[in-house]
Amino acid sequence: MRNLNSTRFKYTVLGAAVVAGVAYAATQIIVQPSITLSAGTSGDKPKIQRMGDGRLVALYGDNTPGAGTVYDVKADIERTARDAYAKSCLPSSTVTCNNPADWSAPVNLSNSALQSSIQTAWKASDNTRYTYPGDIDKVNIKSTGSAVVATWVSKYCPDGDTSTLGVVDGTSQQRAIKYLERAGRTIPFSCTWVARSTNNGVSWSPAVQLSTGLRDAIQDSSSGNFNSTTKTGQVNISWQEDPQGLKLGEADGPGDGASGANVNGGTDVWYTSATMDLSVPSTPANDFVLATPVRITDNFAGDYGISGGTLNIIYDGTGANVDPATLEKGQAGAARPNIGMVGSTSIIAYEETKGAGGLDEGKFIRYHAFPFNTPPATATEKAGCIISNPAKNARRVRFLTQSPTDAGAGGIQMGIFWKEGIVNGGGPSDIVLRRGIDGLQPANLVPAVDSANCATSDYATASTLSNTPGDNVSSRTPTATSANLLDDTEANDTENALAHRGVLRGRDMWIGYSYTSNLSNLWSQTDNYNFWLRKFNVDTGAWSRPTNVTRITDKNINVREPRIFGTPKSSETKCPTGIPADVTTTDPTFCQNTDIIYVGWGTETNVSPFDPAGPQNLGEYITGSTDAAENFQLPVKLSEAQGVMVWGIEESAFESQIVARPDGRRFYGVWNQQNLLTGDTYAQYTSGDMSGESEPQPVPRSNITMSSEGGAFPVIGITLLGLLGLLRRRQGR
How far is C-alpha 464 from the chain's CA centre? Predict the structure, then answer.
């Protein structure tokens, strides 16, 4: 039924292809047939990084032979337990990485699926306690220099004393929660783990347990910096821990089910850091020195008990109810932290319930900036600065960063942006943004926040903060002018923006987001989500008007999980000046071209939010620009799999992750692929090339439906992509 490594649709240049009587310029992005990286049938959420030496490192979850069954709270299904796996490939003149044999053997980073640290009554409507395998959630990855860090949360939490390295037997503190809504299943809490490589992913350290499972961990991420001259660096890691167990979502927004967005009071963000010193090969103990994890928010303030009522659904490792006097709780809860590092400064932002005692159910965005090895310790430091509009509901904060050198005088060292609106949950919202100019502290943010008073945990004080509204990037997107940047988020309360992404390079910042002009029309399939992009330039101080990059005109199809990515910095050894023609350049493909920007996106069916089955994934696409997003090339399919609804293909693709070479002429992507008949999932990989320059495409004069909205070129709709897919299929025979 499935043979993904056989010859598939051939991605070739369509020179002056004629479709329905319309001539199109040559396709300038060429995508190779994909290969499968995972070995089992549970390949999950692959990630990819390109290291400084050009090596590709891919991480993914997959079932380990012999692993037992677990219950997936997010998906509400039973499945085989997964481990975290890593592979690598170094492209060269003889190695393309487009063949499975080019990749290293998989390395099992977690080694937990065949182990267990707890028994619970996890089977539906069954009070018998069974061994629960050490399943992992998605694995996350960040790289800096020759170091790459992998983090994940796992149901395997054997060590109850993480202050010392190594597992201390018999000390497990792991707890579990009973989900009454899920047939009374009792599911173990998760703990956070980290593994690292300091040689570009060639070999990996044993995994280290960072938290105990006394609280339920999720939303792990990491960042860092490395100086290739001194061969020293630093890494930071954050995650959240809910003391009363991961709460189920309320179906208010996409992807929120049991994701950690919905939290109990007392949920805090935890943090650790590590120093790296690779300058002396004979001192491996200095390679990666972890600090003791600490709580850097203040939501647990010494109160204990059961949040929200008297029903005790928390259990210990013996199967007994946990004494409520040992259950942490608080007024507010922090969720979905993001972490970064600029120089040696850690930055963390997250959404947090307002702790208003029922007066306001929304969330603040809070922000911290501190020396990486000196995490917040005082009450004011732990409160964090509220940077959102305190009267609104803000969530899903993200940021872009660059060094002060790359930013230049008066430049953007950080762009920080989030969803904001008056409605809670998945209601209509806009994308709101501030810039960190010449620094990272709250006082450096533009538009300004009340930096003198913003670090407060008192709701009455927080509600009166005089924060200047952030730039409203998405308001009235199809017709937006600079005047709309000042719009209140409720100026148009029918539109909605989400899935915000961006790129920051020197004096330019690009912000993209998925947008629909009317949620009611979306739900009736008379409107859909497309991905829009706009650019800010520091020197002009101006935003460009939004451009619809994806232009899907079929209202039954939405953009899903868009990606925008630029090129990495030039190699200090192979392109030390950053100039391809310089005599010191030994490989021009390692010289950064900052004008090349890519956009990738998935597609899914547009269905009513009340549809119990939810949307179906379809497939992945990619386009690119060589002129700093002024124009884009004709989009092509990134994945062969495109789903049943449009293509009649038995496989779908979703959640791509893509990186580029410094010159931008080659990219590398991974995604999840699912067999729609069996439900099996796989981690797929492909690479592609940009062979030409971007050109505005002529507006077609034919019966092919195209968008009439503004922009520099008519990006094709699904109908045309289908015809191009047929051409590619015929050429591949």
Answer: 33
